[in-house]
Design a protein that fits this description.
- It is a single chain.
- With about 210 residues, the protein is an alpha/beta fold.
- It is built from nine helices and eight strands.
- An eight-stranded mixed sheet has the order 3-2-1-4-5-6-7-8, sandwiched between helices.
- Helix 8 links the parallel strand 7 and strand 8.
- It is globular, with a radius of gyration of 16 Å.
Length: about 210
Amino acid sequence: MITLGLIGSGLIGSQLARLATGLGHVVVLSNSRGPETLVDLVTELGDRARAGTPAEAAEDGDLVVVTIPLHAIDSVPVEPLAGKVVIDTTNYYWQRDGHVAELDAEAITSSELVQRHLPTSRVVKAFNHIEFAHLTEHAQPAGTPGRRALAIAGDDAEARAEVARLIDAFGFDVVEIDSLAESWRIQPGTPGYGPRRTADELRADLAAAVRPQP
C-alpha cells in the first residue's frame, strides 16, 4: 500500500484516485480551490481518501501526481517533493496556457519544463495521452488480449519502473520512453496521442512521430 498524493483533482486526478483506492492505496487529494471543495469526491472514495492542500499532498504522498494546467506549474511546491517520484500528466496548449517561447520553438518539452521547476524530484510523464474516462473504462487485468498500453517517459530508470508497476496494477501495459527530452513523441498531435493502442501499436506510433517544426 502506498499513499498517492494528487496535486490537482479534476478529471484525470479523480480517475486516478478511483483506481488507486480501488487497489487499497490511500490518496491525498488537493486542488487550487481548497480542501472543502473536495468533500463529495472524498465521500465517494471512502475512508482511504482525504483532502488537503497541495503542500500536504506533496508532503504525504509516497508518489505524487501533478495534474494541473501547465500554466500553473509554478504553484507546485518544490521542497516537499525533493527526492520523490512525480508523475506529470501535463500537455501544452498555448490557447489555454499562453505562449511559452521555448515550447513554441520545440526547444524543450512540457515535462522538461516541469522537471526544471522540480530540480530535486524524479519526473515521469504519464497519463497525458488518454481520455480521462478511459482510465477506468479501459483498465484490464495483465495478460488480457488487446490490453491497452500507455506510454511513460523519464530520465530515471528506477522512477520509470515504479510508475510502470503502478500503471500495470491500474490495468494497462506500459511502453517506456527513456528520456523526458523524447516525450514529445506522445504530445498532442502525434499518432499515439488519444487512440487506444496495444503495446506494439503504441511503439509503432512513437517511432512514427514527427516533431513539429517551429
